[in-house]
Design the sequence.
């Protein structure tokens, strides 16, 4: 098949290579000409603009966006849609908010354009292992583009979730679960690191991946990181969040669904960004006031 690909960052460039390996024709565009040149040297057709990308594709076109959620997606669709023809498809493979995806699908349908929201998981390992794809939109359009999904995903690694927004809704919850899993591993290894024993944490991660009930790919990556830097001295204790955890917690509040672990894992990320927590100062001061407990001063 033929696919236009916009956004050639860490995931987009790897997706282009995986598609080329599956004998698909890829027309690629990025604001960075070097990124376009890189995938073109691997066999893609490069484009210097959205207009050129559209010209190089045959109708009915399919254009996959791998750009950051929010304004970048909105702006790209706003610029791209007028260049397309009725029956063409825009695919958002980023981590967009599912309500935005449903809105975009409804808006594009008025222009007789189709829209698929594809929650994409796999990170930088997707080129080798494949991407897990959670797909929302019109079932007929999903089936038309199924050869693309089949190439990008490992065996049984893609599925149709339902109407517009469903793909990104499932990916949102997927990432919320990821927050909780990462927090559990992090807390456990922090306690192991503080233990009275001289433990080899990389060895422990490797051990647990052989028969333990907590074995996982994340634990494999834990072993890899600890083997390279046992004390993680090169890593700053600052954890970013890219939006999906917040959306998951907000959705839980809206629907009255208790998510204590995921919620606390999100707030722990906020805490990691404070060099000097005022809340902690308040607690220390109150302990001094009611119990005469000593406080540490700067």
Sequence:
């Amino acid at each position: 098949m033929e696919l236009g690909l916009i956004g050639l960052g860490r995931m987009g460039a790897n997706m282009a290579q995986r598609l080329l390996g599956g004998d698909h024709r890829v027309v690629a565009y990025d604001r960075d000409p070097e990124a376009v040149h890189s995938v073109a040297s691997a066999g893609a057709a490069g484009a210097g603009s959205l207009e050129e990308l559209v010209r190089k594709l045959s109708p009915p076109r399919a254009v996959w966006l791998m750009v950051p959620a929010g304004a970048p997606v909105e702006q790209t669709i706003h610029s791209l849609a007028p260049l397309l023809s009725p029956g063409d498809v825009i695919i958002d493979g980023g981590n967009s908010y599912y309500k935005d995806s449903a809105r975009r699908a409804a808006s594009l349908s008025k222009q007789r354009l189709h829209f698929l929201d594809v929650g994409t998981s796999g990170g930088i390992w997707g080129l080798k292992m494949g991407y897990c794809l959670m797909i929302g939109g019109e079932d007929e359009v999903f089936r038309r583009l199924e050869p693309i999904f089949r190439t990008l995903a490992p065996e049984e690694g893609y599925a149709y979730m339902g109407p517009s927004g469903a793909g990104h809704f499932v990916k949102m919850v997927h990432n919320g679960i990821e927050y909780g899993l990462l927090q559990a591993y992090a807390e456990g290894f922090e306690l192991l690191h503080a233990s009275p024993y001289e433990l080899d944490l990389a060895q422990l991660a490797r051990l647990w991946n052989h028969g333990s009930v907590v074995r996982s790919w994340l634990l494999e990556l834990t072993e890899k990181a600890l083997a390279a830097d046992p004390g993680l001295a090169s890593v700053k204790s600052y954890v970013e969040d890219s939006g999906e955890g917040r959306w998951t917690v907000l959705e839980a509040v809206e629907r009255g669904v208790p998510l204590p672990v995921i919620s606390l894992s999100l707030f722990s990320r906020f805490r990691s960004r404070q060099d000097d927590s005022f809340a902690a100062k308040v607690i220390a001061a109150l302990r001094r006031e009611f119990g005469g407990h000593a406080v540490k001063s700067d």
About this structure: Residues 166-193 form the longest helix (28 residues).
